[in-house]
Sequence to fold (81 residues):
Amino acid sequence: MVTKVTNELTYKEIKVFVEALNALHWKADYEEFCKLMGYADSAYGLERYAQFENLCKALNSFNLDSLVKLVKAGVIVDYYR
Fold:
C-alpha cells in the first residue's frame, strides 16, 4: 500500500538513500561488500558488487530533483493501479 508523503520528506528520503549508498561505495571494497551482504568470494559475489557499483553510478547520473520527480511519478502510477 502506498501512502502519501510530502515533497520535502520524499526529497530527504531520497537524499539519505543516495548518500548512504555513496558512502558505502566509497568506504567498502569488494571483500567488505561481500561480508556485509553475506556473499562468498565468488563469481556471484563479484557480479553483485559490479551491479552495486553500477547502481551507484546510475543514481549519481541524476540530480536529486530529477530522482524525486521519478519516484513521485512511480508512486502516482502505483497508487492509481
About this structure: Helices lie at 7-27, 30-37, 43-60, 64-79.
